[in-house]
């Protein structure tokens, strides 16, 4: 791409608008990797990994970063070591955050080792893809998430989505097929409008909105029944 050298000479208001126009919706993946051999202190929460690169705008210059186009969302844990009665240290997991005052005290005492990892999100337009991660791993930001994508074999545990109270769009990846999700639109209370509920069949790439899912499931069942009758 050709460099526009006069860009710094443009009025500040125009430069800011140009930076804002570079922001586009993204799907940002976040996963929890539980590696108990190399990092046993992380316990059941695991380590944060994300393959989504930092938005290019944030690499550009300080002016772009200072506009606050993206929020730095902390997902990692603080590892707090507490010593009691001269016994071996007890390792506790403080999930996702420690109050600033408590953090300062722990750091001064040498008891706090921070393993903070984060991703950059525009929570208004970006979709957070958590794969097969537990919903509870993201409960601390659930109320801020508006677009969520996840993968599940079946609807069990879908009621945990009710923590995501401001949801506007949900994408569900179905690795075992649509048929497992038949009736789910009516049996669960979803935190977003039905027309914003999208099902994705992993092995075929088919997609179906909530209002289409039941028809698709009936058609699939009819096809399977027809094949079964032909074979018999």
Quick summary:
The chain is α/β, with parallel strands linked by helices and 232 residues long.
Primary descriptors:
alpha/beta; elongated; 232 residues
Q: Tell me the total number of β-strands.
A: 13
Mean pLDDT: 78
Structure class:
alpha/beta
Main sheet characteristics:
6 strands, mixed
Q: What is the number of helical segments per DSSP (H or I, 4+ residues)?
A: 6
Into which percentage range does the β-strand content fall?
Answer: 15-25%
Shape: elongated
Distance linking N and C termini:
62 Å
Give the % helix: 10-25%
Rg calc:
23 Å
Instruction: Name the strands of the widest sheet in spatial order.
Output: 1-9-10-11-12-13
Account of the protein in words:
The chain has 232 residues and is of the alpha/beta class. The protein has a domain at 23-31 and 123-231. It has helices spanning 12-21, 56-60, 62-65, 100-108, 184-187, 210-231, and strands at 27-29, 31-33, 47-49, 71-74, 77-82, 90-94, 112-115, 118-121, 127-131, 147-151, 169-174, 197-201, 207-209. A hairpin with a 7-residue loop joins strand 5 and strand 6 (90-94). The model is unreliable at 37-44 and 77-100 (pLDDT under 50).
């Amino acid at each position: 791409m050709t460099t526009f050298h006069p860009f710094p000479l443009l009025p500040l208001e125009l430069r800011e608008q140009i930076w804002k126009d570079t922001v586009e919706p993204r799907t940002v993946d976040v996963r929890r990797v539980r590696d108990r051999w190399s990092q046993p202190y992380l316990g059941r929460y695991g380590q944060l990994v994300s393959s989504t690169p930092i938005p290019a705008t944030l690499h550009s210059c300080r002016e772009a970063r200072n506009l606050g186009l993206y929020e730095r969302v902390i997902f990692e844990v603080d590892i707090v070591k507490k010593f009691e009665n001269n016994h071996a240290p007890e390792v506790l997991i403080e999930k996702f955050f420690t109050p600033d005052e408590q953090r300062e005290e722990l750091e001064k005492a040498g008891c706090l080792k921070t393993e903070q990892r984060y991703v950059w999100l525009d929570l208004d337009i970006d979709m957070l893809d958590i794969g097969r991660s537990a919903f509870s791993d993201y409960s601390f930001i659930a109320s801020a998430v508006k677009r969520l994508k996840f993968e599940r074999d079946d609807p069990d545990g879908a009621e945990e989505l009710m923590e995501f109270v401001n949801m506007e769009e949900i994408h569900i990846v179905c690795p075992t097929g649509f048929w497992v999700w038949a009736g789910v639109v009516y049996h669960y209370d979803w935190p977003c409008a039905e027309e914003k509920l999208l099902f994705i069949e992993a092995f075929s790439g088919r997609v179906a909105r909530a209002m289409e899912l039941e028809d698709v499931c009936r058609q699939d069942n009819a096809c399977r029944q027809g094949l079964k009758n032909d074979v018999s």
